Amino acid sequence: MTPAGAPPGLLARFTARNTPARLRLLLVVTIAASLLWGAAAAWTAGQRTSAAANVAAASEPLSFDAQQIYQSLADADATEAIAFLARSEPPAARNRYLGDIARAEYYLEKATAAAGTLGPGAELTTLPVEIPVYTGLVERARAGNQQGLLVGAAYLAEASHLMRSTLLPAANRLYQQQNARLATADQQATALPILAVLVALAAGYVLFRAQRWLSRRTHRVLNHGLIAASVVGLVSLAWLLAALTVARVQLLDARDRGSGPVRALAEADIAALRAHADESLTLINRSGDDVNQADFGRASRQLGPGPGTLLTEAAAAAQGSPGARAAAAAAAAAPAWYATHRRVRALDDGGSYNAAVQLAIGSGPASSSAMFRRAETRLTSAIGADQAAFRSAAGRGQDTLTGLEAGMIVAALLMAAGCAWGLISRLAEYR
Amino acid sequence: MGDESLTRSTKSGAFQTTLSLVACALAFLVTACGTSQAPAASPPSGAEPSPQGVEIQKDRPLPPGTLGTPQTCNPLASLAPAGPLPPPGHMPAGSTMAAIAKRGYLRVGVDQTIYLSSYLDSLTGQLKGFDIDVARQVAQAIFGNPDKIQFKAITSAQRIPVIQHAQVDIVADSMTITCLREKSVNFSTDYFDAGQELLVPVGSPVTGIGDLRGKKVCADAGTTSMQQIQALPSHPIPVAVNNWTDCLVMLEQNQVAAISTDNSVLAGLAAQDPHTRLLGPLFTTEQHGIAISKNAPDLVRFVNAVLERMRTDGTWTKLYKRWFGIRMGPVPPPPPPSYRS
Description:
The structure holds two protein chains of two kinds.
Chain A lengths: L8 H7 L3 H67 L5 H25 L6 H25 L4 H40 L3 H25 L5 H61 L6 H13 L6 H8 L6 H26 L3 H9 L6 H33 L3 H25 L3
Helix pairs in contact in A: 1-2, 2-3, 2-5, 2-6, 2-7, 2-12, 2-13, 3-4, 4-5, 5-7, 6-7, 7-8, 7-9, 7-12, 7-13, 9-10, 10-11, 10-12
Chain B lengths: L1 H36 L17 E2 L39 H8 L2 E5 L2 E2 L3 E4 L4 E3 L1 H14 L5 E5 L5 H6 L5 E2 L7 H4 L3 E2 L4 E3 L1 E6 L14 E5 L3 H8 L5 E5 L2 H9 L5 E5 H8 L5 E4 L6 E3 L2 E2 L4 H17 L1 H9 L18
Parallel strand pairs in B: 2-6, 2-7, 11-12, 11-13
Antiparallel strand pairs in B: 1-12, 3-4, 4-5, 7-16, 8-16, 9-15, 10-13, 10-14
Helix pairs in contact in B: 3-9
């Protein structure tokens, strides 16, 4: 049936105080509520899916790359000092140094490529410019050392100073930036879905009021279309909440048993490498100043173990993670290293230079280098284990969200269809 | 009721849209700022860095009583030997030498970075050089064994404190005898005459100290050489470092135009880089003495007796020839001693 007077027109068909108009209005409102829910749910699902993908596939790899750059450079500093101190350069140390530099440059290339359209930051211009300056100084130091010239040690000191005053701070800033990015992505991926819940409540309320009005007006208890729409809505809400909750738990797990410990362990690793380099540099630099020895003291105090120190905090952060045992072992191994270092210093200060060098970098298991490696390999293995834990947990979190966005859209369309079916069949009774 | 909630939702939707637009705009701005931070305007220089602890000491005032002021004492006059040397192993009871003999080794503060004078040979791990051999002569006189010795690596600035704090028995470290230093430590007689001159790259336009105006000249911090550079009438820019080899690094990297210190030190640097040359004339005379505690005049007399023997039995000339040869010109005679009356 059509209204007799055309001019009142379309608007009147919805606003008139008769039942068909009310039904038409209800039709529009319930479909709109369904679609609004669909939009909110799909947006939330999409946003979380991309945030989780960002954590697992973009931010964490960038943080990993930056950590590799930082760690390689610190290792190069320590390894070159050892190689220099040895009377004839050990091929293994030389290869390790070359590998460190190559690794740093490889990951730097990756980090620069990933920076993409944002343009390289100051760190990404500092590092590629200064690394060749550093390696140039190192080669000059080696050339001098091979000829037995004292100036070789001065070049090495200049190289190490460049490493510590420019390269490592830049690598550290890059690493901190990537970690901050990872933390932001983590936050986005694990935020509570407040908007979706509010919209769900509003849509549910609309459907509830629609059914109550219908049952009073038409004296039929149930409207199958609206009931179907409500059930689909509830199921989609449950799916959304369940998937987001599971993903959240897994991402938090990835953070607490993965990226969190990795960060603390990497800090400890860098400090350990620095102290290790200091020991050799003190033996190389014969000027009598104790710059490097004082630095060893600082680095080892930061390292610990002890309350508030890097090793203890890393072990605490790694509690319950796959790297926990290795992290604890690293902290436990440090004091023996310091004790050997003190013996190295006593020998050198007592004028027994050759014995001091032998104890510092000798190939035996009791040398200071061996003691250091005992702690450091545990740190790196803990880092590796927790990185793997991060990847699998973050990957699982990402998998949980698969198909969620599409599912929300389909559910909303089904809801809208249910509302349309339920109300159009009522409306048909008035024709 | 239904339309009300619908309107509200639409409003909140619009609000969301506005918010996200604002957020996008903000993000864009932030991104734009980030891009503008990138130093794309000019490429970096890639210049070599300075060694650690380098300092330009242009406006630093000279310590009082160092240069320009007339000597208030005769610093070269030392304590005369108390008769002939006792045989090794038989030091006078109660003497400083007896205490050293009891300890079992002589403690000597040395530089370990001055090639030819006093350096650690990286191939053997042994200390070598003229000053080291002089110190070994003292150990030989006390113990009959030149290896009964414990060397301690010290910086130029630590030379007086390690004596005052009794961390070493003697300092043999190309140390110039001055009245100011004599207030804090005793000196032996002059055992080496050096003089300050320049080390420049081969082909440098510098022909003498008059050409150094506005040019950077390097020396070890806390040495009389640094004070002489600061006092030069041509006003070079004094660059202080922690190590003489740091000066050579900076010269090779064109960060300084010249190095200026004792010719014995410069000869050791020149021996490491054939593309440098010593440039005279000497503009100071530096008499090197062995520094000993004010509390050990008997050790001063003993060391002077050792030096006296070295002068007369040809040991001095043998050591000079071994380490310096003709790098600084013809081999000179040993510097004559001068004693307080």
